[in-house]
């Protein structure tokens, strides 16, 4: 492959009318990347994924995986793609084992070592009756069914739905393992914490429009840092604000906020040695806050709802 | 980057395995019902056939009545009491010989005890007892003795019967037609165009829906299509299942039917039975194709079910109603000819049971050929439309 772009959508549009659908989605997922796709319910995550998997035909624009058009060569794409659907409904088979076996035949899997590894990790009992499985168990079974192919690309539609916090952690561990192997992972979710803990980059979608694509590396390693500093006395605060070589602003009583670049950190701490400080706190911008911010910007931009 | 698994383009073995696993129970149940229905029906028809013997006894009846008439004349002439009952008791044969000889001499007839005996033997082949013939002769003889009091016209049994029936409000025409009715043809019609079809119609409606539409609606199709399996492979695999299952079921039912026919009848028209079931298979495939097309077009299970089920129910009902417009039913007074319009409103109407059952007999009615060709065309076109549509539509998976 010429570039390392694995999944690419180009002006992808699927209009279901009444403002539903996805509009002009441009995404690029690079090889070996864990790409998060967040958005509220009904914002178009699943529609985008269905387009990428070739289940629906885009009205305009295109989606390619590994250089192949999703709609035209869907079946060939599937040689390298595993998919966990958002809605879990199994075929009319009796037990989980039966289902996994039949799935292995479709995928041409003959070595069950890796499958058993995932089953163990997720603590799944596949011998249970498919119809009587709880939501979490069904989800685990679906994950095992998809991952056992050990494909290069994983597309997961809200894969942690129904999993308890322990299992969610185990699942995220699995994702990290996959990433270690150099596999490309595209997962949608509305739980920010899990996206934040495994993803390299995140795209946010709202009402069918992409509103932001953020690198979580930037989020974790911002060039500019914000601090809240609380002084013992107000005059000291005033003095600090006046002499500081970076932007600082007083808030209430004896606290102030400071924004400085990473290189300036040394200067900041040297300065602070001369003051009596009660509290020093870094303002960490979580993905959720970032999302909320982008979301609100999206609101004012689109001007609807 | 490539795995060694090849893309399934036209057929998917695992999918076939899955389809068989999920549906074999239903198929076997329907098969058993159809075997039961077909063979019980066959048994009932064989019973009907033995009850109504088709030996022609008209000649014997004539001879018998001539002898009885002669005896009656002789009795009145000679004040004797010779009768059929007396004759068969057999201890007075000489008296009969004398009587017949005398009558032969008088009226230039050719009567003999031997002839009388032959007539009796011949008549006993019919299902009607000889006592009944004797009784009927009493009426015929009595009515012959005199003419009508007012119109001076001859009085006959058949006229008396007609008048009596008319008095009772029963059309004498109908009674006549009823005797001409062919119960075997009616039972055939009933079995092949209505009762025999119902179970397999139910099966194909359920199968067509569960093989495609229901899996798309529920989302379980995602597990097939997220593997290197083309949609065309899914469409064709399921189509193959829907072509083979009715074939197997109908073939097995046909085989058991031929078997039991050998058991119940002396002679078996094997090509005829094969033609009837072959025609039934083509009809079933036409309906199957329609259901399959519905299943491929609609992504919602209930819509596909409404389409396939609705059509199948309509075909069945229309054919049932059409049955009451068939010649046999009209003849029995249970039907009205106008109802036969319904046969034109159902695909089942293109399944010409009467023409098909002539296969293997001396005079083959080939009217069934073009009708079956239409059914075949319906099946091919609907299967093709369904498969193409499924390969091209948006799937909510």
Automatic annotation (TrEMBL), chain A:
Coiled coil: none
InterPro entries: AAA+_ATPase, ABC_transporter-like_ATP-bd, ABC_transporter_ATP-binding, P-loop_NTPase
Keywords, comma-separated and alphabetical: ATP-binding, Nucleotide-binding, Transport
Domain spans labelled ABC transporter: 7-232
SUPFAM superfamilies: P-loop containing nucleoside triphosphate hydrolases
Bilayer-crossing regions: none
Record keyword ATP-binding present: yes
Superkingdom of origin organism: Bacteria
MF terms in GO: ATP binding; ATP hydrolysis activity
Family designation: Belongs to the ABC transporter superfamily.
Name the record gives this protein: ABC-2 type transport system ATP-binding protein
TrEMBL record, chain B:
TM ranges: 21-41, 190-212, 233-258, 270-293, 305-325, 368-388
Molecular function in Gene Ontology: ABC-type transporter activity
This protein's UniProt keywords: Membrane, Transmembrane, Transmembrane helix
Keyword Transmembrane in annotation: yes
Keyword Transmembrane helix: yes
GO cellular component, one term: plasma membrane
PANTHER family in the record: BACITRACIN TRANSPORT PERMEASE PROTEIN BCRB, INTEGRAL MEMBRANE PROTEIN-RELATED
Protein name from the UniProt record: ABC-type transport system involved in multi-copper enzyme maturation permease subunit
Organism (species): Faecalicatena orotica
């Amino acid at each position: 492959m010429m570039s390392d772009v694995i999944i690419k959508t180009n002006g992808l549009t699927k209009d279901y009318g009444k403002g539903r659908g996805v509009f002009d989605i441009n995404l690029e997922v690079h090889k070996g990347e864990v790409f998060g796709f967040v958005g509220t319910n009904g914002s178009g995550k699943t529609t985008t994924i269905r387009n990428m998997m070739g289940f629906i035909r885009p009205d305009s624009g295109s989606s390619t995986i590994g250089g192949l058009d999703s709609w035209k060569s869907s079946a060939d794409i599937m040689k390298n793609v595993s998919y966990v659907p958002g809605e879990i409904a199994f075929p009319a088979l009796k037990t989980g084992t039966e289902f996994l076996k039949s799935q292995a035949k479709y995928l041409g899997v003959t070595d069950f070592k890796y499958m058993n590894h995932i089953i163990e990790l997720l603590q799944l009992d596949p011998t249970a009756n498919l119809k009587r499985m709880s939501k979490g168990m069904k989800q685990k079974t679906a994950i095992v069914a998809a991952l056992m192919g050990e494909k290069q690309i994983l597309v997961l539609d809200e894969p942690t739905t129904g999993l308890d916090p322990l299992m969610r952690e185990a699942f995220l561990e699995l994702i990290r393992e996959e990433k270690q192997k150099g596999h490309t992972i595209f997962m949608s979710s509305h739980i920010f914490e899990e996206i934040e803990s495994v993803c390299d980059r995140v795209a946010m979608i709202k009402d069918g429009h992409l509103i932001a694509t953020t690198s979580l590396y930037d989020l974790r390693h911002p060039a500019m840092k914000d601090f809240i500093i609380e002084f013992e006395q107000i005059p000291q605060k005033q003095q600090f604000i006046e002499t500081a070589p970076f932007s600082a602003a007083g808030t209430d009583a004896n606290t102030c906020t400071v924004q400085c670049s990473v290189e300036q950190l040394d200067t900041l701490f040297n300065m602070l040695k001369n003051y009596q400080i009660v509290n020093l706190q870094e303002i960490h911008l979580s993905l959720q806050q970032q999302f909320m911010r982008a979301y609100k910007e999206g609101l004012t931009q689109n001007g609807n709802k | 980057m490539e795995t060694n698994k090849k893309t399934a383009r036209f057929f998917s073995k695992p999918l076939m395995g899955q389809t068989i696993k999920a549906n074999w129970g239903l198929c076997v149940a329907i098969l058993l019902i159809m075997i039961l229905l077909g063979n019980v029906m066959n048994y009932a028809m064989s019973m009907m056939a033995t009850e109504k013997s088709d030996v022609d006894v008209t000649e014997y009846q004539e001879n018998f009545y001539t002898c009885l008439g002669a005896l009656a004349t002789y009795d009145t002439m000679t004040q004797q009491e010779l009768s059929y009952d007396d004759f068969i008791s057999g201890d007075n044969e000489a008296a009969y010989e004398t009587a017949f000889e005398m009558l032969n001499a008088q009226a230039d007839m050719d009567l003999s005890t031997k002839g009388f005996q032959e007539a009796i033997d011949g008549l006993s082949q019919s299902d009607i007892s000889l006592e009944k013939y004797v009784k009927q002769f009493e009426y015929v003889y009595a009515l012959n003795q005199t003419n009508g009091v007012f119109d001076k016209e001859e009085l006959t049994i058949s006229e008396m019967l007609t008048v009596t029936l008319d008095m009772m409000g029963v059309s004498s025409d109908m009674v006549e037609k009823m005797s001409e009715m062919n119960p075997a043809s009616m039972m055939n019609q009933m079995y092949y165009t209505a009762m025999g079809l119902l179970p397999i119609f139910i099966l194909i409606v359920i199968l067509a829906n569960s093989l495609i539409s229901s899996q798309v609606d529920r989302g379980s199709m995602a597990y097939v299509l997220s593997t290197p399996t083309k949609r065309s492979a899914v469409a064709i695999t399921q189509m193959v299942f829907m072509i083979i299952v009715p074939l197997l079921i109908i073939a097995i039912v046909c085989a058991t039917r031929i078997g039991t026919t050998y058991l119940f009848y002396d002679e078996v028209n094997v090509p005829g039975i094969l033609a009837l079931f072959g025609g039934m298979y083509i009809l079933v495939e036409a309906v199957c194709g329609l259901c399959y097309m519905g299943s491929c077009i609609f992504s919602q299970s209930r819509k596909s079910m409404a389409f396939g089920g609705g059509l199948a129910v309509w075909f069945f009902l229309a054919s049932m109603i059409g049955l009451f417009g068939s010649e046999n039913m009209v003849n029995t007074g249970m039907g009205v000819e106008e109802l036969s319009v319904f046969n034109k409103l159902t695909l089942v109407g293109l399944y010409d049971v009467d023409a098909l059952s002539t296969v293997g007999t001396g005079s083959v009615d080939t009217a069934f050929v073009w009708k079956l060709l239409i059914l075949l065309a319906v099946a091919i076109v609907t299967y093709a439309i369904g498969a193409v549509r499924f390969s091209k539509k948006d799937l909510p998976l």
